[in-house]
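Ticket reopened. Same input as before:
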Amino acid sequence: MSTIVVDGGFATGRRLHPWPVRIMHWTNAVAMIVMIGSGWGIYDDSVIFHGLHFPPSLRIGSWAAESLLWHFAAMWLLALNGLAYLTYGVATGRLRERLLPIRFADIVATVRDTLRLKIAHDDLTVYNAVQKVLYIVAILAGVSQIVSGLAVWKPVQFSGLTALLGGFQGARLIHFLGMAVIVGFLIVHVALSLLVPRTLWAMLAGGPRLRAPRAGRRP
Ligand code: HEM
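Engineering reply: fixed in the latest deploy. New output:
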């Protein structure tokens, strides 16, 4: 099992965000934004919720067919990049190291601190419990978008999957709700990274070098 500490250890040379993670994170951000903007263009052609439209200034593609081309182009980038991120994260143990464990008491403490506007985030190398939950939700929502997207894209070839998701309209609804979760995440995520700009710089430049415990277990 690997343990990362900041004080009292020896430098491992590893950065908080190694370069593959940074490349994959920003590739994902671009792909997600294109998927969301073009998805809104496709949605507006045949709405699910009457009265809910997205303004042309927020849509990518001047009409539905053009939006669809953008959606299909970014889809490959999103899926391959996401697969690379998950494979890298699992193979190196980084995902588990960064995102687990999550304790309920820590979630409550973080929410309490945030409500008191205490979001110092002194130690960048440790994600707080709410951050961990939000990242896991974002990753799962991304996976759900790929799966429900497949069911909407190829409902005949993936008929079993489409049926599992409640048919074509059910898969469409899940795809829309997944988008809403990701947009909600994105608003909070970008706002927090602007509130604590050191995190933004770390995601660009790599951040501090990690330290491993002096005695006992090594990563
Ligand atoms: C342009 C928009 C974005 C900005 C400015 C941004 C910014 C950041 C920053 C600063 C961090 C590091 C946080 C820290 O060290 O405390 C981070 C991490 C992360 N972001 Fe974003 N992000 C963006 C888009 C996205 C999107 C679209 C997703 C997924 C839907 C996403 C998912 C994540 C995840 C999962 C992490 C943790 C990465 C890891 O350690 O493996 N981000 N982001």
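Residues 1-8, 215-219 have pLDDT under 50 and may be disordered. The longest helix spans residues 64-92. Please confirm and we'll close it.
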